[in-house]
Design goal:
The complex is a heterodimer of chains A (284) and B (248). Chain A is mainly α. Chain A has eleven helices and two strands, in the order H-H-E-E-H-H-H-H-H-H-H-H-H. Chain A folds into two domains: 39 residues; 241 residues, MetI-like (MetI-like fold, Orthogonal Bundle), CATH 1.10.3720.10. Chain A has a two-stranded antiparallel sheet. In chain A, strand 1 and strand 2 form a beta hairpin. The longest helix of chain A is centred in the C-terminal third of the chain and has 38 residues. Chain A is globular. Chain B has one domain: Rossmann fold (3-Layer(aba) Sandwich), CATH 3.40.50. In chain B, helix 8 links the parallel strand 7 and strand 8. The mean pLDDT of chain B is 90. The chains are: A mainly alpha (284), B alpha/beta (248).
Chain lengths: 284, 248
């Protein structure tokens, strides 16, 4: 009897937690959507910012964020591939693998503001790039590297040994096994990790505010040095902090809604691959 | 005078960390024969197979001692090209491991990268291998379909065709029929008998009747002092007849 009531209590408690989590998400989405919805229009997406954010659109902020994300993906993809292959194929000893895993865990724990400071010292000052989209993209790429790498590492580790044995048993060299067996079957992990990582990177302000982005006056960058971009998170940050103009408030929430939509899209795009992995894990 | 054995194993030992798996294994496998390895599970028969083409390298914890000669040359030579060795000594596993691609791509999985034959001759090579594995008539109309749609018995023959396409001199078979139904088992046994003479087969089997049907010679394994070793070698009929049916 007592066991039954404990069980019922447990079910109710977990149910309440689940409802609370979903309710929180709904609350956030609703509070942003209800305030930002009015600002959305075609011209909001295609127009340039005017009147210090109180009027006009967010075209270059969106483009700037997309440039940063594309650079981050281009940075993290080859590095994550290299790390995962070294970890899963070339490092034979358990201890060395754990060392790589530990490194990724530590990198994942570095606060994003430290990435920003690191970038400012190395790229902005030491290399003399000034504020540059490339610095921001590189920093975001390094920041999401653990997420992408671990996703790929897990996918490679979940490959059945019999595939690797069969391929090696046919006399295929390691490079060919990587190309024909490991990569085709683990690229889903790379895609999933990248999308989840980019979803996180899209909203980051700290790594790019000193290194890559400004509030106004930038368009599409023409070079590397002194070539900042506008960006959605920094735009929101500045409007929220400094603007006393009520008209800017609506624009602020509009930009927030667009950023939220971008992040949700990236997360949802990763969903089919994650579900497939889940199914496969339950298949065997 | 008998010709030199194609595989000559002398006092081979394998340890996994402090634990011995095989100790003092000596065997001479004549070229063109079907050589059976029988004995209870966990006695190291599969490990011995994996020594022959250095698949033990994939398990870093294993240490191999002793000598294993393939055509007189030591297999565990540091300078040996292991990939080339594995094209000459192919392997067939208990569970067929077909790759998630088409039937044709599976057959050519090992042969295509070798590039021994020109690209335009690859389809002919695939057909030849599939015919040798007695699978051609069943799959010739669905070469482009996913290999995973084949039955397990067909998949096992596909794996054999894939190995044959690289033209190995020795084929190691690790209980190739234990996952198959009687009909598919018979098909594989037929194939082994057809390969005899042209290629050397090393066959691990739990099935004594199978060993009597297809093997020329048999080595019986048992655990002695905590490690697997060969306790008896001889013609298939004599070894298997005297041995207890459930060894150990």
């Amino acid at each position: 009897m007592r066991r039954k009531s404990v069980h019922r209590l447990f079910v109710v408690a977990t149910g309440l937690c689940a409802v609370a989590a979903v309710a929180l998400l709904v609350l956030i989405v609703w509070s942003i959507a209800s305030r930002g919805w009015a600002a959305l229009s075609w011209s909001f997406f295609t127009g340039h910012m005017r009147e210090v954010g109180a009027d006009g659109g967010i075209f270059h902020n969106l483009i700037g964020t997309l440039i940063l994300l594309a650079t981050a993906a281009a940075t993290s993809t080859p590095l994550a591939l290299a790390i995962a292959l070294v970890h899963g194929v070339y490092l034979r000893h358990h201890r060395l693998r754990r060392f790589v895993g530990l490194g990724l865990t530590i990198l994942n724990g570095v606060p994003s503001i430290l990435f920003g400071l690191f970038g400012m010292i190395v790229f902005v000052q030491w290399l003399g790039w000034g504020k540059s989209w490339l610095t921001g993209g590189l920093l975001l790429g390094l920041m999401i590297l653990p997420t992408v790498s671990v996703s790929l590492i897990e996918r490679i580790a979940s490959l059945p040994d019999r595939y690797l044995e069969a391929a090696a048993g046919l006399g295929l060299p390691t490079s060919r096994i990587i190309r024909s067996v490991i990569l085709p079957q683990s690229l889903g992990g790379l895609l999933t990790g990248s999308l989840l990582g980019l979803a996180r990177a899209a909203g980051e302000t700290a790594p790019i505010m000193f290194t890559a982005t400004i509030f106004a006056g930038a368009t599409i960058p023409q070079g590397i040095k002194e070539s900042p971009v506008l960006s959605l998170p920094y735009h929101i940050f500045v409007l929220a902090q400094d603007s006393f103009d009520p008209a800017a408030g609506g624009r602020l929430w509009g930009a927030a809604l667009v950023l939220l939509g971008l992040v949700l899209t990236l997360s949802l795009a990763a969903l089919p691959a994650r579900l497939r992995l889940h199914e496969e894990a339950h298949d065997t | 005078m008998t010709p030199d054995p194609i595989l000559h194993i002398q006092s081979l030992g394998v340890t996994a960390g402090p634990r011995p798996l095989l100790r003092g294994v000596s065997l001479a496998v004549p070229e063109g024969s079907v050589f059976g390895l029988i004995g209870p599970s966990g006695v190291g028969k599969s490990t011995l197979l994996k020594c022959c083409n250095r698949l033990v390298d994939l398990t870093p914890a294993l240490r191999v001692t002793g000598t294993l000669l393939f055509r007189g040359a030591p297999v565990f030579d540091r300078r040996l090209d292991v990939d080339a060795l594995r094209t000459r000594i192919g392997i067939l596993f208990q569970q067929p491991a077909v790759f998630p691609c088409s039937v044709l791509a599976n057959v050519l999985f090992g042969a295509r990268p070798l590039a021994r034959v020109p690209r335009r001759e690859l389809p002919a090579l695939a057909e030849h291998a599939l015919r040798e594995a007695a699978l051609w008539h069943e799959v010739k109309d669905r070469l482009d379909q996913p290999a995973t749609r084949l039955s397990v018995g067909q998949q096992q023959r596909l794996c054999l065709a894939r190995t044959l396409a690289t033209d190995p001199e020795v084929i190691l078979m690790d209980e190739p029929t234990s996952a198959l139904d009687p009909q598919a088992t018979e098909a594989i046994e037929h194939l082994i008998l057809r390969l005899r003479g042209r290629r050397t087969v090393m066959l691990v089997t739990h099935n004594r009747a199978q060993a009597r049907r297809v093997c020329d010679a048999v080595a019986r394994f048992a655990v002695v002092d905590g490690a697997g070793t060969v306790v008896e070698t001889g013609p298939a009929g004599t070894v298997t007849a005297d041995a207890p049916e459930t060894g150990g």
